[in-house]
Amino acid sequence: MKSSKKILIVTSEFPPQPGGIGNHAFHLANQLSKNFYEVEVITDNRSVSGFEETTFDLELPYTVYRIKVNYLRFFMYFKRIFFLIKLIKKNKIIIASGKFSLWSVAFVSFFLTGSILQ
Fold first, then answer.
1. Is the pLDDT of residue 118 over 60?
2. Fewer CB atoms inside 10 Å of the end CB: C or N, the chain?
């Protein structure tokens, strides 16, 4: 039975690539999912092809939205903000993990305060 509580995790790292922030976000997402929360994750692809991440994500009980690697970082940031605005509207709780994730959630919440966020 799924809970009506939806959680969005915004993180700069996520497995299968190594990293402490990704490890934290992964275990947090897994435990929340096991405890009947609907979890969605926004993160960056860290491999150029994205094959490892796509294969890994297929095994997860929640949806992971990966931002494709782009050498012009501005396009990655813009896409992440776009996904964040889209997904923040349908999730009750937002968790940011990592410096850029925290900044992007704060930036978006500045514009949505009063209309979406409490």
1. no
2. N
